[in-house]
Design a protein that fits this description.
single chain, about 140 residues, alpha+beta, 2 domains, four-stranded antiparallel β-sheet, two-stranded antiparallel ribbon, about 45% helix
Length: about 140
Amino acid sequence: MLLMALVMALGFTSCSSDDDSSSIDCQGAIAAAEDAFDAYFADQSVENCNALKAALQAALDGGCAEDEEEAAEVQATIDGLNCEGSSGDCVTCAAYVIAGQSIPAIEVCEGANGNAFVQGVDTTQPFAAFIASQETFTTCE
């Protein structure tokens, strides 16, 4: 969901100047990023992942981030997307309820870098540690 928040955050920004004819159309770039996001989360294929990365990068390169902090967050998201696929070691952690809040089941895959990836996004945590933390609340198989 962090990825969606970043895509949506780009939607509330504009390029550096409305009078600058060399600027990209940020509304179009953001719409393309939103479409790529929707396609990727409907089908997390390598092709859709690369399309999402490209759309986010185009919006970023076009100056569509509101400030440096947002630009850094979007760049971190781009860097965290694992479009090369996982090492093949994936488990599903079952849904659970904590403090009255339902947490849905998730598929966690070990990336080539050894980190846990959830929905193609690098959690930056080692796979084994991430699974161990999940298993304090639920089962992962």
